[in-house]
Amino acid sequence: MGATMTAQPVHDWSRPPLDGYTVDDLLTLPDLPRHTELIDGSLVFVSPQRFIHSDLIDFLVTRLRLTAPRHTRVAREMTVVIDKRNGPEPDISVVRREACTSPMQTHFYAADVLLAVEVVSPESEARDTKAKLVKYAAAGIPNYWIVKIEGDEAIEPVVYLYELDPHTRAYVCQGIHTKPFSVDRPFAAEIDFDGLDEM
User: Fold this and answer.
1) What confidence score (pLDDT) does residue 11 get?
2) Is the pTM above the cut of 0.85?
């Protein structure tokens, strides 16, 4: 008699547990699609991204790493644990260096994030500009950038800079930029998108 083959159970992510998913589920469920996020206990699956989205993330990661001080690290697309039911994945995170404990780690905690950056795509606009704006602020992340892509042929990124008001635990817009701009938080950096086409 031949060996009996046991089929592995297939998890149906569309049927969440009674009380919703948790961050532990997000970090341990097998075979979740890449870049799955957890928002208010619900798994959010990210649609395929346009090339410009990836290009802008690469560009900003490179620019930030050029000037990032040694006590920080710049990470791309890593889960940030906010609480039991929220584990979003910013496109870019600037974190404290000591938060990088292993090359195999899969997430950071919000307390270690100094800057979160989201490059907006059509399917993520409401999450990036509304839900995450509130959640990142409530989690105490001091700086948040929202990058919107305007134009179809001549791409013009528009960057909304937010800084946390520690008294209200809400973000205050510090500027909206389409031209080269500089910041001094979380560290001094200059961003000029003129080089984007040369990447």
Assistant:
1) 65
2) yes
